[in-house]
Amino acid sequence: MPSLDELKNKYRSALDTIQREGVRLTHLHVQDEKLFIQGAAPSEQVKNDVWNQIKAVDPSYKDLTCDLTVDPSLAPQQTQAAAATASGGSSTRTYTVKPGDTLSKIAQEFYGQANAYNRIFEANRDKLSDPNKIQVGQQLVIPS
Predict the structure, then answer these.
(1) Region of 12 on the Ramachandran plot (φ > 0 left; ψ -120 to 50 alpha; else beta)
(2) CA 48 centroid distance within chain
(3) pLDDT reported for residue 91
(4) What is d(CA 95, CA 105) in angstroms, rounded to the nearest whole number?
(5) Whole-angstrom distance, CA of residue 8 vs CA of residue 113
(6) Which run of H or E residues covers position 6?
(7) Neighbours of 6 (CB within 10 A)
């Protein structure tokens, strides 16, 4: 029987997407020899992103049960960003700082360039006084 850690490692990319995109997990355990993931995604797009990661790891996902619903109230900022985009504004995303993160690392993830960290710093001047001092759990705006 696979352990919880083995299954979590196998599906790490999907679990990283869950964390990065603000999916609220209600269950993450082994049930019937499968990794059981249950929670709510802030949008249909995020739910699809999680499923795409799952299928990229194992198209049959025979050792996984994933039950995600969509709860738009989990992402009011993304809803506002979508409305701003529809009205001609620019879109933004939010990101929750994890242990080991730096603005450069986050910029690399979102823009493909670590030296684009200043875009994130400038968009978060209201909560950051120094680009080298971010806190785990902080919600940062990621401009497009």
Answers:
(1) alpha
(2) 12
(3) 60
(4) 12
(5) 28
(6) helix 4-10
(7) 13
Give dist(CA 21, CA 50) in Å, integer: 9
Question: Helix or strand or coil: residue 38?
Answer: strand
For the chain, which domains are there? 4-74 (3.30.1340), 76-143 (3.10.350.10)
29 vs 80, more confident: 29
Taking the C-alpha atoms of 5, 108, 42 and 52 in order, what is their torsion angle to the nearest 10 degrees?
-60
pTM of the model: 0.53
Residue type, 128: L
Q: Which residues contact 78 (CB under 8 A, 6 or more apart)?
A: 42, 43, 93, 94
E strand or H helix that includes residue 50? helix 44-57
Q: DSSP character for 13?
A: H
What does the pLDDT read at residue 75? Answer: 62
CA distance 12 to 14: 5
Residue 89 neighbours by CB under 8 Å, 6+ apart: none
Cα 96 to Cα 70: distance, rounded to the nearest angstrom: 19
